[in-house]
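ERR on first pass: missing label on line 2. Operator R.T. fixed the label and resubmitted. Corrected input:
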Amino acid sequence: MLEHVELFFKSIFVDNMVFAYFLGMCSYLAVSKKVSTAVGLGAAVIFVLTVTVPLNWFLDQYILQPGALAWLDGNRATPELSAYADYDLSFLSFILFIATIATMVQLVEIIVEKFSPSLYNSLGIFLPLIAVNCAILGGSLFMQSREIETAGLALNYGFSSGIGWFLAIVAIAAIREKIRYSNVPAPLRGLGITFIITGLMAIGFMSFGGMLTGGDDAAPSLEGQPEKVGLQLEESIETETAQAAVISE
Amino acid sequence: MGLLSKKDAKLILDPLTDDNPITIQVLGICSALAITAQLKPSIVMAVSVIFVLGIGNVVISLMRNIIPSKIRIIVQLIVVATLVIIVDQVLKAFAYELSKELSVFIGLIITNCIIMGRFEAFALGNGPWRSFLDGVGNALGYGVILVVVGFFRELLGSGTLFGFKVLGDPITKTGLYAIGYENNGFMVLPPMALIVVGIIIWVQRSRNKALIEEN
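pass 2 clean. output:
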């Protein structure tokens, strides 16, 4: 349970798709002019990531990894005995992952259109965009390279990275709506200022880095400082009062 | 440019400046930012994208009349994925350290918006030779930004270029460090990539007023 909670918060804040890895920046910049459209795209990304990451996890576990094909002759428990133990198909992962994503996006589009026309109308135009959103493929590739252990964790990872992306795009859309009333230097207007704001937001998100370590590595230096500062303050106050006393005399 | 007609040369030269994929068309930013902390990965990434986009544009252009328009996105993705697998395998074989460093970002060339964008906007409607030029031109425009960002981030962040200590040694205090210069460690962190690109956009648009956006 604890690992689920940890992964959840880590994927949203520490390893935020946009601010830590710049994934899905293209649609992040293109569709963030209004909060309402940003919410639509963000929701679609959460949805597709939640579906595709676990799906690709199964593909990775049972087809792509070295020795993953052992289940073909019933030797999953003792892979080294299997006739298929030496097969390593991991070079195919890009093509399989992207095919899964493209198919899932198409499938999701058809299903949503059939069963929930209102949701389709709000998500509709964004769904095809998502097939080529780096955040989706990035989610699957990070899932593979970080060797996430169970399907549950993979589901959690997909969902929480989606939320992180959602947060980022809604936040920047809100800022861009407000910044229209500000006097931005002409050459920076639009794209330029959006880049710089995103940079500043990313610096802000870096401060979440210590969240999961409990501040252990940073703690000693932080504890040491206030006392020193306090001492210096006291000293300076003392000297000031001394000086004041001298002057008054 | 005796080899190319004026119109063809424009295909290559325009994306380098006034129609740059990153700063004007806003495509392909994802990978541009994450790998530019140093110059070497930036150049490798640029070369990979030139390869994928040049060849991919030709392949799509040759197939443009037989791809059913309904499934064209999947066909395009498969073509790119195949080319990216080639790049990935070559890197793993000849530059293993570097391919570890680039980690998932080589794979993410597949979803690099420049590639899909050029397929859709150009290769589906033009012949192979012109598509090739367009692909190489746009990939070069992308590469230029990557190299500029990588250059400044590595120089100011770690005081090196390609790993050579061009500003002197910060530990033994030689070169610039002897007179009190310090590396700006902030440049190595990911957020600075965004700010450096923002500044590039600022400079470019100040020089060419036609590019300034309406509010």
